[in-house]
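Appendix B, Record 12. Input sequence as logged:
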Amino acid sequence: METPMLLLPTVGQHVITPQETSPENTFIVANTLPTSLGEIRDQHIIPVYSKDNEPLISHADFIEATFETLYQFFPQEVILEPLVRVSHPIKGRIPSARNKPAKDLADWEKTLYYERAAFAIEIPSIQGQVGDNTLSLTIGGVKAYNLDSLHNRKGSDEHFKVFIGFQNKVCTNLCIWTDGYLADVRVKSVKQLIETIQMLIQRYQASQHLRAMQELTRYFLTEQQFAQLIGRCRLYQYLPPAQKREIAPLLIGDAQINTIARDYYRDESFCRSEDGTISLWNVYNLFTGAVKSSYVDTFLDRNVNAFQLSQSLLETVLGGTSNWYLH
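Logged structural output:
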């Protein structure tokens, strides 16, 4: 079996500048706006607990904690500025402007924060090769205040999602698997959050993850099998609950399935071959590309689910297990 290439050059500790950022082909697109760590830190208010007016861990706190942890673990690597996307704005105004029409509000009279934020921090000096694609190590997370109980006091659990994996440089799709993802982090302080991020980085096996993705490049679905996969994915949402519980879960919705079917023919990098066959690596990337249109608080779970589905397809192609999606 071909061993995937993992490149770990030592380039000296690197100080980021605002000009050195990842490409603006973003890792998530649906219902989100681009922003920056500086804008969040300097211009957005911070939600507080209603019972004691103590602040929650802010989006900026989360990003900075991740950033500082990366510098501790990878002091000799190039670490790019975080790419940040936000959604669900919560707008307000200062008390003295309470009677003003909205159109007359000055900027300094407005308040704003975003309920949900996602970010990704790329380390381009740590790369792997899968097929013809170069992948860069990427770490990030999601914070959604709607999961927190803002009516409580400081010390209540605050919820986060954290990941470490790779980003495909061809398309900026994130490649995340279960061992690099914590879907329900609950902490009470930034210190606990940092400890959780440290634990995730320590347990993550980059070479093993790359090897699993490399294996997907070696096996293919026929056009008939791919069509059956798409059809079964459409049927999954309407299965009786008892039958659905016996099948590997599918978190991807109809809109994403439509995108995958379209890109089977049209995607420049991951479409079918001339004979209609398609590698499992390309199938996986069609799925990870499609889930970029998911909401901030669901896209990481869907991304991991795409890898799980690809692995189950691989096991079926190898003859090891039956699979309802290719039955």
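Residues 56 and 256 are 34 Å apart (CA to CA).
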